[in-house]
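Private note to self, pasted from the team thread so I don't lose it. Backbone tokens:
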């Protein structure tokens, strides 16, 4: 998710689940070809497995960007056909490509020719007036014929005019049935559902109908949700990590980041929701929000916030 799931966020989420597949935010092919690649694509080995999401519609550029991404170690290349922002439409990529299945198919063919890792597509159930069952079927069949085996489907249509990206994540109604029927019509494809999933019980319900579930906002805003994923979905036998263990696991990573000139807040901003729903969640968030952006703030701020959240009153008083 743009501006959210950067490498620090993914490192943090990886402390919560060893197995969940993590995605980068969308990075345009153009940026990869012309920009600072290490900044855009660099990530830590510990984040694995990570999929790289690309934005674009030029098969040659996407193929080149995919190959570069594979070289950086990403385990999947995903093409964004779901983002409705104006900026993205101007560049003729994102959700507007749902109207051009043949072009998306050409992009997939070109990318697959250059990489060994899977090439997947994230899309909506429809756009504008092209939101019938037949439209989705036409899109998926064309792209599947190009060799895409996995579709992550955000179960709501996008309006390309008139709604902001945020509204396009909330206003068009969710239609999970549409995604279930897509899976039923294509048992040979891996269909991953996305949109509005807030609990692991919801995940279980969806998994009776589709092959996977992608969590967006819930995983970011309430990250501890992911802590039980390994046990519930991947057959792990170990208990989920405690929140305090997660913070402690972040300390060496954070110290290294700060030592090399990075700001604490680059990491701290992603963990604000770790104590979501817990009694001292607010005090945890407040301590981080106030202290982490300060010049010279170091990893100790994370430990202080953790002690506040865990009820260490001495720190609570000192922080008042
Ligand atoms: C801040 C923000 C940034 C997003 N950026 C991306 C993106 O880069 N690529 C993408 O495929 N989806 C992006 N999304 C959409 C989410 O991946 C997801 O499809 C959508 O939020 C619905 O799922 P959810 O209800 O689980 O959040 C973004 C969502 C948010 C809130």
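Design output:
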């Amino acid at each position: 998710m743009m501006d959210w799931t950067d490498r620090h966020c993914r490192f943090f989420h990886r402390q919560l689940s060893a197995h969940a597949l993590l995605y980068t935010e969308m990075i345009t092919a153009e940026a990869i070809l012309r920009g600072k690649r290490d900044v855009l694509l660099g990530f830590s080995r510990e984040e694995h497995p990570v999929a790289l999401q690309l934005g674009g519609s030029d098969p040659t550029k996407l193929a080149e960007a995919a190959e570069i991404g594979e070289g950086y170690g990403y385990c999947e290349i995903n093409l964004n056909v779901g983002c409705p922002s104006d900026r993205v439409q101007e560049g003729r990529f994102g959700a507007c490509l749902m109207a051009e299945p043949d072009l998306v198919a050409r992009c997939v063919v070109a990318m697959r020719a250059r990489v060994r890792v899977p090439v997947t597509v994230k899309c909506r159930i429809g756009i504008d007036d092209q939101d019938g069952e037949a439209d989705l079927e036409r899109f998926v069949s064309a792209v599947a014929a190009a060799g895409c085996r996995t579709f992550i489907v955000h179960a709501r249509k996008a309006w390309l005019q008139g709604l902001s990206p945020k509204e396009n994540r909330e206003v068009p109604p969710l239609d999970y049935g549409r995604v279930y029927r897509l899976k039923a019509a294509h048992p040979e494809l891996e269909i991953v559902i996305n949109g509005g999933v807030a609990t692991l019980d919801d995940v279980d319900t969806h998994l009776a109908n589709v092959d996977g579930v992608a969590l967006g906002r819930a995983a970011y805003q309430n990250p501890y949700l992911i802590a039980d994923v390994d046990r519930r979905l991947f057959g792990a036998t170990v208990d989920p990590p405690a929140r305090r263990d997660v913070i402690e696991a972040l300390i060496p990573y954070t110290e290294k980041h700060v030592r090399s000139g990075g700001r604490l807040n680059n990491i701290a901003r992603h963990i604000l929701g770790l104590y979501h729903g817990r009694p001292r969640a607010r005090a945890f968030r407040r301590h981080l929000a106030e202290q982490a952006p300060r010049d010279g703030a170091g990893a100790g701020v994370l430990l202080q916030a953790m002690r506040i959240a865990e009820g260490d009153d001495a720190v609570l008083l000192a922080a008042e």
